[in-house]
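User: Teach me something about this protein's shape.
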Amino acid sequence: MKKYFIITVDTEGDNLWNWSPGNVITTENGKYVDRFQNLCDEFGFKPVYLTNYEMANDNRFINKLKNWETEKRCEIGIHLHAWNTPPFCRLFIIRWI
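Assistant: First, the predicted structure itself:
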């Protein structure tokens, strides 16, 4: 029996643990994904890159992923953060009594 598992890679902007509204989110970490993809290629793994809003807007990063996906070396998914993905809308707290 053949066994499978899925490798997911959560790709997000830099230092989001320290982010607060109004701060610019950079995507320099996208430059280093090649090393991980090469490791996956070496062992025959096909990762799924779960990409959020700012990474999806980084052309350098997306072009890499599109090439790898075209070559069947990865798959692309998405995960979004409600606090920094447009459209922005104000959230209200509703208390039921």
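Now, about its shape. The mean pLDDT is 89. The radius of gyration is 17 Å. If you'd like, I can walk through any region in more detail.
User: That's plenty for now, thanks!
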